[in-house]
Structures are given as C-alpha cells and as structure tokens.
Design a protein that fits this description.
The chain is of the alpha+beta class. The protein has five helices and 15 strands. The strands form three sheets. Strands 5, 6, 7, 8, 9, 12, 13, 14 and 15 form a nine-stranded mixed β-sheet that branches. β10 and β11 form a beta hairpin.
Length: 307
C-alpha cells in the first residue's frame, strides 16, 4: 500500500513576511506552485495545526505540515508493436535512434506508446531498471529530442552503464539549431543549473546550492540566414542542460517554447547525434551515430572533409 508523503517545516527568519505558497515553493522544489496550491485548496496544508490559505503571511517559528496525496502506482509497462530504428544491438544492450515526439518511459499521461513499450515488444525483456515502469532505461531524452539512447537488457549491464554515465565516461555529442550566430565559434559554458524558483517545470542558471555544476563544450558547425548549427558536448548531465546553457549564451534552440520561442517549428531542434562508450562486457569502444533528422535542413552541416 502506498502512503502519502508528509513534509513538516518550521519557518525560518528568511521566510518571515512571505506568502505561504512562496515559502513552500522555496522549501519543496520537487512540488510545482500549482501542485502546492491544489494541496492548499484540498486542506492538505496546515499552518500551526489549522488549514492554511496560499496568501497567508508566514512568521518566524510557524509550523507547516504538508501532506501529499498517495501517488497512484503505475502499472508495469506492456509490450507494443511500435517500429524502432536500431543503431546497435547485442545480447547486453540496444542503442536506438529515438524519434522526436516519443516519450521514453511510462509516466503520468503516458501509459502507452513509449520507447519502453516498443523495446519490450522488440527485445522480450530488459533490465529491472530503477523503477517498474522504466525497465532498461539508463538515461533519458526529452520527448521532443531525437537521437541516440542506450538501453540495458540485464541488471549487470544496467549497473555498469549507469556508473559510466555517472563517472562521465560516456561521450555525448548533440546537434542543435539556434537563433543567431554565437560570437565565438567554439567555447565552454560553465554555469550551474537548477530548478527555476517560480516556473517549476523549467531549469535555469542558479548559484549553488540551488544549482548543480554543469559544463557544456560547443562548436559552431555552420550558419545560414540567421540560424546556426551547433555541436554540443555536455560534460555533465543536468536536466535541460544544453537548452539552458544555449539560452544563457544568448542563442536559444529553435522551436523551444520553454527557453525561447516555438514559432513555426514542430519541436525544439535538438538531436542526440553521437554516443561513445566502452561496452561493459567486451571492453569494445562503441561509437554510434544517429542520422541527422530531416527538420535540421534549416542549417545543413558542411560536407565531410576529403581524406
């Protein structure tokens, strides 16, 4: 049986004279402001033992109790016959070219049609994963991001791949089309990334401890008519890292409604182009590349150099 999560807080001097909902947003970054407001309306937020209002003013020493609803457990993923573009497969792992628009694993509002559903049909079984609804999934890509994603078939390989990602032994190269031409053809963006203090679905540049270290190397490959094709090599793996860093550079990704503008684009133009890592079982260096999607014709890459 799943029980509700309970949070108990004592208001600090910094919380004094602030609205209750804003205090909770600061102390409970995992909860969105809309989620907090819904909990207040449901009477699940108590201020000094009594149901609170979002607009109430907090005083130092006030006691806050927040009780989240027990989450509804997701059913285990089921196989679905969905076509896959396989870049590499062996007895231990699969590397897939994920199409833009496909969600990686089950979650609220996405109980079928995911990459996991397709992989279960294709492979039969995957690693246990960190959660029942995420078998095989070692790392993730946003729904709109296309390209390389590696999936484990067994728990031993899953653990080895997870360690490789955590220890930064996996080399990743993304392609992005951005607005404008960066001032420097190549460089490094070293700015910590954390959750936005108000817009909880977004990330932003934040100083520690709210922000975690994030480093992205980049190189401009081509430009045309006010747009540039940029290769991004993230050294860390923070949520939305490349999207936030390119926006910080002054060149948001085309079609990104979170950090730029959607305009006429069907999605944000970010593609996990290349993936390079050592095979956990054989020690072989795997270099995988996902073909550049058709919607990247806005700024085609230069032809390979002869020789």
């Amino acid at each position: 049986m799943t029980h509700p999560s309970v949070h108990e807080l004592t208001a600090s001097p910094e919380d004094a004279r602030q609205r209750l909902d804003m205090v909770l947003v600061r102390h409970l970054p995992a909860l969105s402001r809309s989620k907090i407001q819904s909990l207040v309306k449901a009477g699940r937020v108590l201020l000094n033992g009594k149901p609170a209002r979002s607009s109430e003013e907090i005083h130092e020493g006030d006691l806050l109790r927040i009780e989240e609803e027990a989450p509804k457990p997701l059913a285990g993923a089921h196989p679905e016959n969905i076509p896959l573009s396989i870049l590499h497969e062996d007895g231990d792992l699969i590397v897939v070219n994920k199409p833009a628009g496909m969600v990686v694993h089950l979650g609220a509002g996405h109980e079928d049609g995911t990459l996991v559903n397709a992989l279960l049909h294709h492979a039969g079984s995957l690693s246990t994963g960190s959660e029942e609804h995420r078998p095989g999934i070692v790392h993730r890509l946003d729904k709109e991001t296309s390209g390389c994603i590696v999936v484990a078939k067994n728990d031993r390989v899953h653990a080895a791949l997870a360690s490789a990602f955590a220890e930064r032994r996996v080399k990743k190269t993304y392609l992005a089309i951005v607005r404008g031409l960066p001032r420097h053809r190549r460089g490094t963006i070293d700015q910590p990334v954390g959750r936005h203090p108000v817009h909880r679905q977004r990330m932003t540049i934040r100083k520690p401890p709210s922000g975690r270290d994030a480093v992205t190397d980049y190189e401009v490959l081509a430009s045309r008519e006010g747009w540039s094709l940029v290769a991004c090599m993230p050294r860390t793996g923070r949520t939305h890292q490349i999207r936030v860093h390119l926006t910080h550079l002054g060149h948001p990704i085309a079609g990104d409604p979170f950090y730029g503008r959607r305009e006429h684009f069907a999605r944000h133009l970010l593609h996990a182009w290349r993936l390079e890592f050592e095979h956990p079982s054989t020690g072989e260096l795997l270099r995988l590349e996902a073909p550049i999607p058709a919607d990247f014709d806005l700024v085609p890459p230069p032809p390979p150099k002869a020789g």
